[in-house]
Design a protein that fits this description.
By secondary structure, this protein is mainly β. It has one helix at 65-69; strands spanning 12-16, 30-34, 39-44, 55-61, 74-77, 80-88, 91-95, 107-110, 117-118. The chain is elongated and about 60 Å long.
């Protein structure tokens, strides 16, 4: 197993090869996808009952249908992760989970099932 840290890059697919130095690289390669940053502009409604099960609409830019096909799109309400439904490049739907007491919780979105963007 080799662990590599991806450097910053613009949105694109890039070829990745490994080797012991900068000259002797492997003949085989893999493709790594850099995705654009997600920009979230709104959450509607912005409050729900503690019983949950309210569909939340998340608006913004950068939501990708490919991420939906790969099952990478999720919403996180505090620490509870729920699947998101891709509607368009500017809209997602998530079902708010049940909470045990009324309170404000952060809502975050991921399109790569790793990095969450706070809304």
């Amino acid at each position: 197993q080799i662990l590599c840290r991806a450097p910053a890059h613009t949105a694109a697919n890039v070829t990745v090869r490994v080797g012991p130095n900068y000259q002797d690289m492997s003949l085989t390669s893999s493709v790594h996808e850099y995705q654009p940053l997600v920009n979230v502009t709104g959450v509607f409604p912005n409050n729900t009952a503690v019983s949950g099960f309210t569909t939340i609409t998340v608006t913004g830019q950068g939501f990708r249908v490919r991420s939906a096909w790969l099952d990478y799109i999720y919403c996180r309400f505090n620490t509870t992760v729920v699947p998101a439904v891709y509607v368009s490049s500017t809209e997602l739907h998530c079902v708010a989970p049940k909470h045990f007491a009324p309170r404000v919780v952060p809502v975050e979105v991921t399109i790569n099932n790793r990095n969450y963007t706070e809304i």
